[in-house]
Design goal:
Layout: E1 2-6, H1 18-32, E2 36-42, H2 45-50, E3 55-58, E4 71-76, E5 82-87, H3 89-92, H4 110-125, E6 137-141, H5 142-145, H6 148-154, E7 161-166, E8 174-175, H7 179-182, E9 196-197, E10 200-202, H8 203-210, E11 213-216, H9 219-224, H10 235-240, E12 245-247, H11 277-288, E13 298-305, H12 311-322, E14 327-334, H13 336-348, E15 353-357, H14 361-370, E16 373-376, H15 386-392, E17 397-400, H16 403-408, E18 421-423, H17 428-442, H18 445-457, H19 463-477
Parallel strand pairs: 1-2, 1-6, 2-5, 6-7, 7-11, 11-12, 13-14, 13-16, 14-15, 16-17, 17-18
Antiparallel strand pairs: 3-4, 4-5, 8-10, 9-10
Helix pairs in contact: 1-19, 4-6, 6-8, 11-14, 12-13, 12-17, 15-18
The structure holds adenosine-5'-diphosphate (ADP) and alpha-D-glucopyranose.
Adenosine-5'-diphosphate is lined by residues 17-18, 21, 302-304, 331-333, 359-361, 364, 383-386.
């Protein structure tokens, strides 16, 4: 199968969250199965720097509306995956986060920036393309490329098939009516059966409406988003498309995230050398300015600090957690209130709680290795990768029973499979009870080793899920 994988993030170069990780690993896993997968991604500064020799292979013209003529450059990722870099400097030559300007607000021209990404994906599948490679399926990811199926529906003479993967239903790419013209979409697209969504234009809705198939990143989330409570306004449409909707659990990059070979760690370890994890804990405590002591559990967070992740609930009970006794380490960035709340809390509890605001890949690895318990009380979680990293690093996670968390973490009460702690209601009280259970279990070495070993033995690689994607592509392409 020939697959065009369209994405707005690509690890290790451009990443704000799990989408970047998925785009950095799934295409290679599909290629290992023999499929011809190429990745279309905006040529952000980090990518142009990484691939200075990327030659221009096409200039898609007359894309419609206000869309400019970009260049397409070709490069090859170190893992062998061919990349198509969408080069239009006025849109993508901007520093920092791919979506936000310096004040932390969305760029005002995001509809054009990601409209161009979507439009060029459709162009690559259309008769107009000057490339000598035609995909069988265009695989769109999240709202930033979800307009491609609409462009295909209203344009291409050679309708190539499309798949939209929902990594997070909370981000829907919603813009004013004027965007319809600017994006070069016909008036006919402005209907509830098209791109219109309650008087606005929604990229994601357009994709969910027009794609040949839809999937999300866990079976649990695929079920949840069809309910009015968790469907974020799209439940009706998703139920309508239930026959074309599935859930495929994310994998992780098992080479990047492997405690036995992780270059970020002071001491590498595996499930048979778990005692070497202790050196990583001591180093992390020292690095973060926590009291260096082995006799209390270190609870950790690596996360975007947003409403989704439930870290306000953790903050609410953080003082009681320290009194268990325990230590807390947080790495994250995002909402000002949460950044401020956690920083202020850490300042009041020196040596016992440490917070670092920022995005730091190496540090995330050292936390996974150095912590005893990973905390992920998400209100919703399409899949979640950090709990899988934690399992692999022998750091049992405490998670809320939602989406992909419920699909990957098994509560300690299950003696045969338990690998973490799962709680139900999104309340501070329920979270605290689970954290307390975890802290008590940590003091029981036999039980703790069992949880760690179950987690480390779990196969979180992409192999199986890549096979599910391949089967889905084949089904779509007929
Ligand atoms: P989401 O995509 O919703 O943010 P995931 O768990 O799927 O959640 O993926 C988050 C990814 O981003 C993980 O690879 C995680 O390690 C990384 N990450 C999040 N915040 C930070 C941070 N502050 N520093 C380094 N990595 C981070
Ligand atoms: C989203 C979700 C997260 C998921 C990631 C990759 O950002 O919030 O749960 O793991 O996408 O699919």
């Amino acid at each position: 199968m020939k697959i065009l994988f369209s994405t707005s993030e690509l690890a290790p170069w451009v990443k704000t969250g799990g989408l970047g990780d998925v785009a950095g690993a799934l295409p290679a896993a599909l290629r290992a199965l023999g499929h011809d997968v190429r990745v279309l991604v905006p040529a952000y500064p980090a990518l142009l720097q990484a691939f200075p020799g990327a030659a221009e292979i096409a200039r898609p013209h007359w894309l419609g509306g206000l869309l400019p003529t970009p260049g397409l450059r070709e490069a090859t990722a170190p893992d062998g995956t061919p990349l198509l870099l969408l080069d239009y400097r006025p849109y993508f030559d901007r520093t920092g986060n791919p979506y936000l300007g310096p004040e932390g607000r969305d760029w005002l021209d995001n509809h054009l920036r990601f409209g161009l990404l979507s439009r060029v994906a459709a162009w690559i599948g259309s008769e107009a393309s000057t490339l000598d490679w035609v995909p069988d399926v265009i695989h769109c990811n999240d709202w930033q490329s979800a307009l491609a199926p609409a462009y295909l529906a209203y344009g291409a003479e050679r309708p190539v098939k499309s798949l939209v993967t929902v990594h997070n239903l909370a981000f829907q790419g919603i813009f004013d009516h004027a965007a319809l013209f600017e994006l070069g979409l016909p008036d006919a697209a402005w209907s509830m059966h098209g791109v219109e969504y309650h008087g606005y234009l929604s990229f994601l809705k357009a994709g969910l409406q027009h794609a040949d198939a839809i999937n999300t990143v866990s079976p649990g989330y695929a079920r949840e988003i069809q309910t009015d409570a968790e469907g974020m306004g799209m439940a009706g449409l998703l139920r309508h498309r239930a026959a074309d909707l599935s859930g495929i659990l994310n994998g992780i990059d098992t080479r990047d995230w492997d405690p036995a070979h992780d270059g970020h760690l002071v001491k590498r370890y595996g499930s048979r050398r778990l005692e070497d994890k202790a050196a990583n804990k001591a180093a992390l405590q020292a690095e973060m300015g926590l009291d260096v002591r082995a006799d209390r559990p270190l609870l950790a967070v690596v996360s975007r600090l947003t409403e989704q992740k439930g870290l306000d609930l953790f903050l609410e009970v953080a003082a009681r957690v320290l009194d268990l006794p325990a230590q807390i380490a947080v790495l994250g960035s995002g909402a000002h209130a949460l950044e401020h709340g956690w920083t202020a809390f850490a300042r009041r509890h020196p040596g016992r709680c440490a917070v670092r605001i920022g995005f730091d890949e190496g540090f995330a690895h050292r936390i996974e290795a150095g912590a005893d318990i990973f905390v992920m009380p998400s209100r919703f979680e399409p899949c979640g990768l950090n709990q899988m990293y934690s399992l692999r690093y022998g750091t049992p996670p405490v998670v809320r029973a939602t989406g992909g968390l419920a699909d990957t973490v098994v509560d300690a009460t299950d003696e045969k499979r338990g690998n973490g702690f799962v709680f139900g209601p999104a309340t501070a009280a329920a979270l605290f009870a689970a954290l307390q259970r975890a802290a008590v279990a940590w003091r029981d070495p036999t039980l703790w080793r069992r949880l760690q070993k179950h987690g480390m033995a779990r196969d979180s690689s992409w192999a199986e899920s890549a096979g599910h994607y391949a089967a889905l592509y084949e089904k779509i392409a007929g």
